[in-house]
Amino acid sequence: MPVNDAYHPYEPHRDTRRATRDGAGANRAALALHTIADIAAGFLGLWILLYLLEANQGNVFVGFVHGVADWLAGWSQDIFTMDVEGLRVVLNYGLPAVIYLLLGHGIAARVRRI
């Protein structure tokens, strides 16, 4: 018995000008935030490593890493004042690295859920 539905040989016409909500933009933004936080923490961790290994402070690369790490950790300088210089560097540069990682990854997770 024939059905009274109309015959549709093609899919219904979709409006291609309208934006889709597939989440690709949110994923890209989250990836960018995630990457920026990782790079910031990487520079701080690299400076800690270079300092503990007593890298040549006159080297251009070491100076660059130290400058970037100082800029990234400027807000947290001298939170910890200890007699042991190595421990002071680890804590004063390690704290911002951990905070950047936690904030960057947390914000990226929230952006992905949008």
SSE inventory with pairings:
Layout: H1 24-52, H2 60-72, H3 85-112
Taking the sheet with the most strands, its summary is:
none
**For the residues shown, what is the average pLDDT?**
86
User: Considering DSSP H and I runs of 4 or more, what fraction of the residues is helical?
Assistant: 55-70%
Q: Runs with pLDDT <50, length 5+?
A: none
**Proportion in β-strands:** under 5%
Overall number of strands:
0
The SS-based structural class is: mainly alpha
Net shape: elongated
Instruction: For the record, give the distance between the C-alpha atoms at the N and C termini, rounded to a whole number.
Output: 48 Å
Please compute the radius of gyration using only Cα atoms: 25 Å
Run of helices and strands: HHH
Count the helices. How many?
3
Overview of this protein structure:
This protein has three helices and no strands. It has helices spanning 24-52, 60-72, 85-112. Helix 1 (24-52) packs across helix 2 (60-72) and helix 1 runs antiparallel to helix 3 (85-112). The longest helix is centred in the middle third of the chain and has 29 residues, at 24-52. The model has no long low-confidence stretch (mean pLDDT 86).
